[in-house]
Amino acid sequence: MDGQLGVARRQVSDVVAERIERLIVDGVLKVGQPLPSERRLCEKLGISRSALREGLKVLRGRGIIETAQGRDSRVAKLSGERDASPLMHLFNSQPRTLYDLLEVRGLLEGESARLAALRGTDADFVLLTRRYEEMLAAHAQENPVDPREHARLDHAFHLAICEASHNPVLVHTLQSLTDLMLSTVFASVNNLYHRPAQKRQIDRQHSRLYHAVIERLPEQAQRAARDHIHSIRDNLQEIEQEEQRLVRATMRLEGWA
């Protein structure tokens, strides 16, 4: 009898664990985000508190949920930090990586924008509009906003489009690149937003991308996303070449050549 109860308990715990895993895969529960209260989770999932605790125990064993002393349970960082860390260091140490990553962003974000225009729900578009308006409000402020805050808002806007694609693998692939993504967005914001012509260009591109998605125009959305990323790449290359010309001219002036 005890053995049968043990099997039933394991089955309930596995079912609960799988339902919570689905919420994580779908982006409802995000990496690093504290889990809702037990009461709220039980209400949302329609389960008992004991079943929830059994399911969370399974997820802790899998390393998907972590609970630190004195803190709430939260979704663990899912990529292997030990393995990813040297890779991240190598990527961050090579300037060429910036352009390689922008190339990947063009491919992934173009497709995510196309899918968002096809699959996005009204709720997705409410969240996307919120991110877009937050970004516009920051750009319109008289006092300059910290470039890192600009980068964060820019990234949040692009991530909202990706989440509206309803492709969990695409969302998690982009989220796994968050650190590198932010470094490229920061590079573009830091180097381009203080140049009026480039700032106006970026604002127009974001507007074109936003409207193509919410007006459900998939081909236009894909093209707008790719054009935006390619434009950032081209502008950054131009700035890099300007800097190199300046260095060469300065060295000639100082008699180094």
Automatic annotation (TrEMBL):
Query: Which GO terms fall under molecular function for this chain's record?
Result: DNA binding; DNA-binding transcription factor activity
Q: Which UniProt keywords apply?
A: Coiled coil, DNA-binding, Transcription, Transcription regulation
Where's the HTH gntR-type domain? 10-78
Task: Report the coiled-coil segments.
Answer: 222-252
Q: Sorted alphabetically, which Gene3D superfamilies does this protein's record hold?
A: GntR ligand-binding domain-like, Winged helix-like DNA-binding domain superfamily/Winged helix DNA-binding domain
Q: Record's SMART domains?
A: FCD, HTH_GNTR
Superkingdom as given in the UniProt entry: Bacteria
- Work out whether the entry's keyword set contains Cytoplasm: no
- One Pfam family of this protein, by short name? FCD
NCBIfam families associated with the record: PRK09990.1
The protein's name is Transcriptional regulator
Q: What species is this protein from?
A: Ectopseudomonas composti
